[in-house]
Amino acid sequence: MLKIYNTLSGQLERFVPIDKNNVKMYICGPTVYDRAHIGNARSAVVFDVLYRILKALYNDNVTYVRNITDIDDKIYNAAIERNITVSQLTSSTIKMYHEDMDRLNILPVNIEPRATEHIQDIIFFIEKLIKNDNAYVTENHVYFDISSVQNYGAFSKKRIEELIAGERVEISDLKRGPLDFVLWKPIDDKMNFGWESPWGIGRPGWHIECSAMSKKYLGEVFDIHGGGIDLVFPHHENEIAQSCAISGQKFMANYWIHNGHLNVDGTKMSKSIGNFYTLNDLLAEYNGEVIRMAFLMTHYSSPMNFNFEALRQSKTVLDRWYTAIRDVQLCSSNGVSNEIFDVLCDNMNTSRALSLLNEIVAEINKTQNKREIVTIFVNTCQKFLGLMMNTPNDWFCNIEEKKKVWIESKIHERETAKKNKNYVEADSIRAELEKNRILLEDTIHGTTWKIM
Question: Taking the CB of residue 93, how many other CB atoms lie within 10 A of it?
Answer without folding.
Answer: 21
